[in-house]
Amino acid sequence: MTLNPVTTIVLVSPRGNAEDIFSSIQVPYEVEYHHIAIDYPSTTSPLDFTVYCSFVTLWRQFMVDHNKAYISVKRTISIDGEILCPPTTRRAAYRYLAKLSNCQHIVTTAIAVRYLGQVTMLVVESKVRMKKLSKKIIEHYVETGEPFEHDIGYNIQGLGANLSQSIEGDFDNVAGLPINALQEHLISKKILVAKEGEVVDVY
């Protein structure tokens, strides 16, 4: 099945592997980087937090072309409902990975799509269980720099694959972008359409 966009698709400030994963559906797109001020809500819910951030990122954009489709992705990682802030220093990375060690965490991704003056949302969650990580393993991984390049503190498509024990749910969601769910959403909103003569089934 060949999918074609009915308008220009714009990824807004993509992080980590998001661009590579989006490219897998072979749909042309553009990238724009914006610094949007967000007054973070006082909520402990990872779902509410990710939805709010992805929505506000698009709603507060300036100079929007209403004929384009803008996509904003926000991911969080949490343990028992507590959102963990991705590390920005080596010391913070040591503590962060030690907390993930031998535990199950949830990767929550909220995607906002702005098109023709409306914003629609989808949310995907995946459960990841990490191996028991020794101090030596954590130190080695921190030195690779990967914890600072991804918004959940590790790269499951890179050396971080050696840290995980199991994934329950969408692997691409953990990698950077739940592309199948996003593709279905864009089809349902008629932003992506099948090539003439082909049929798209949306479940």
Protein model, in words:
The protein is an alpha+beta fold. 28% of the residues lie in helices and 28% in strands. The chain is built from 6 helices and 9 strands, in the order ββαβαββαββαβααβ. It has helices at residues 18-23, 46-59, 90-100, 135-144, 171-175, 179-188; strands at 3-5, 9-12, 30-32, 69-79, 82-84, 104-115, 118-130, 164-168, 192-194. Strands 2, 3, 4, 5, 6, 7 and 8 form a 7-stranded mixed sheet that branches. α3 (90-100) crosses α4 (135-144). The longest helix has 14 residues, at 46-59. It is globular. The model has no long low-confidence stretch (mean pLDDT 91).
Helix and strand content put the structural class at: alpha+beta
The amount of beta strand, in percent, is: 25-35%
Number of helices: 6
Let me know the number of strands.
Answer: 9
**Helix amount:** 25-40%
Major sheet summary line: 7 strands, mixed
Estimated radius of gyration: 18 Å
Shape: globular
